[in-house]
Amino acid sequence: MRHVLFRRVLGSIVLVLAAAQAHAVSFSLSTSEGGTLYLGNATDEQSYFLLDTGSSMTVLTRDTFNQLKKQQAVTEAGLVVAKLANGRKQRVQLYNIPLLSLGKSCHFSNVSVAVMDTGHNILGMEVLSRAAPISIALAPATLTLNQCDNAHTAMMESTAHTDAR
User: Fold this and answer.
1) pLDDT higher at 86 or 20
2) What is the pLDDT of residues 73-127, one digit of tens each?
3) Which of 66, 117, 127, 149 has the highest local Cβ count within 10 Å?
4) Would you state the torsion angle of the CA atoms of residues 155, 26, 23, 162, taken in this order, to the nearest 10 degrees?
């Protein structure tokens, strides 16, 4: 009896783990000469992010922000003082982005972002913590996110299905 119960519990655990892994999304990362990891395509600035686990905020370049602002109803979310990598402090405007997409299959809703005149977008812990648990592999360089806010995907598919009728 115990053996049967143990097998059922073990089988349930395996199913739960398999279901959790089925929703994981992996991304190839590119690496700079200095070892910095980047997510996305370097030729598409809007979807190219420096991966920075030391940054609490997700930061968008002004160009990326302006592109998203044309596509979505972006709202101001206040001012904060950000401590930069060089130790200096800077006041930055925060905005709420209704939808931030990483690739075609991983989306985050209501993302708080800072807009700064930097050379690249920064994917910080504001988004990465929502995707936890995450894993970073170095050979090959890969980022795996286990929790994407993909509720909007179902909504878009439902809308497309309704529009097709």
Assistant:
1) 86
2) 999 999 988 888 888 898 999 999 999 988 888 999 999 999 988 788 999 999 9
3) 127
4) 20
User: So what's the pLDDT on residue 46?
Assistant: 62
Q: Are 25 and 106 in contact (CB under 8 A)?
A: yes
Domain ranges for the chain, please list them: 28-158
Locate 27 and state its tokens. 């991304």
* Residue positions counted in the chain: 165
3-state SS, residue 107: strand
Write the CATH number of the domain with boundaries 28-158: 2.40.70.10
Distances (CA, A) of 96 to 33, 35, 68, 142: 33, 31, 11, 28
Contacts of 146 (CB under 8 A, 6+ apart): 20, 21, 23, 24, 131, 132, 133, 134
Instruction: Identify any residues that bridge with 59 across adjacent strands, giving them in sequence order.
Output: 114, 122
pTM: 0.73
Distances (CA, A) of 53 to 123, 125, 135: 8, 6, 11
